[in-house]
Amino acid sequence: MKPKIGFMGLGIMGVPMAANLLKAGYPVMVYNRSPEKAEPLVKQGAGLASNPKTLARAADVVIAMVTGPEALGDLLWGPDGAGGAFNHSKVFINMSSVSPRYTRELAVELEPSGVTFIDAPVSGTKKPAEDGTLVILAAGPQDKVKALEPVFLAMGKKVVYCGAAGQGSMMKMFINLLLGVMMEGFAEALNFGRLGGLDMDAMLDTVFSGAMNSPMFQVKAPLLKENHYPAAFPLKHLAKDCKFVVDTAFELGAPVPMGQVLLHLYQLGWAKGWGDEDISAIARVLEH
Question: Does 172 qualify as catalytic in the annotation?
């Protein structure tokens, strides 16, 4: 018998992830601060909870996919928070992007409730979420992660076990640092070539024909060509993650000079009003 899933957070990622759980045959109840976002899922058979606590009481496995620590804290510990319904029979999976330090502190805060806590952010954006091809970066008790694989594989194509709680978030920071470096580098190189008189199609052909080819470059190239950036991963969210990277690096004594530069550039893009556009809108920052 499939466990009952409670899914909190119905944004760009949450809606398709919850939809894939429904498609896989899981009973799903959802909660979102703006309940209208739940309507497509309710039409597909999801239940709708009036608050996080009601959702957590009804579910065996509670999943959160929200924008960061503040939103997650509200869901868990705010009025009618889900944390008040946690006990030893339940599992809580945080799939939101938060810092490793926050995750470790959350694990300590949750421990008295007896709930099994899994730290499982994802690598992938809107399209992989829709296609069910996310990479799940899972951390926590290894036997529990293994037991939850069918749930994870309803939303993704692979589960990478990262270690104790906090290490999933650390892996997320690692991969998003690389993502930021690659995205900014691609946009910077194309802008450099454009100002040097190179044709955009010729530059892309050069990249795609050699060792520098990348699936991410393939996906982002049309946006850069058209100077149109519908969000698959909003720029403001990568700016937030860059701050987590820089803060974590400071705690670790890890040099991240590119991380520092990325934080500045993505914050600048956010300040200029492009925060809700895709991360590839970093090109706008470089052009101004």
Answer: yes
Burial per residue of 112-145, b for 16 or more beta-carbon CB atoms within 10 angstroms, e otherwise: ebebbbbbbbbbbbbebbbebebbbbbbbeeeeb
Answer whether 248's CB lies under 8 Å from 100's CB: yes
Strands 91-94 and 61-64: parallel
Closest alpha carbon to 123 in 151, 157, 86: 157
Model pTM above 0.85: yes
State the catalytic residue, choosing from 90, 172, 220, 236: 172
Structure tokens at 232: 């698959």
Mean pLDDT per segment of 10 residues, for the chain of length 288 residues? 97 97 98 94 97 98 96 96 97 98 98 98 96 98 98 98 98 98 98 98 98 97 97 96 98 98 98 98 93
- As to burial, measured by CB atoms within 10 angstroms (0-12 exposed, 13-18 middle, 19+ buried), residue 18 is buried
Which parts of the chain fold into alpha helices (H)? 14-23, 39-43, 52-58, 69-77, 100-110, 126-131, 142-147, 149-155, 167-195, 200-208, 215-226, 235-252, 257-269, 282-287
Delineate the domains of the chain, giving CATH numbers in brackets.
5-165 (3.40.50.720), 171-287 (1.10.1040.10)
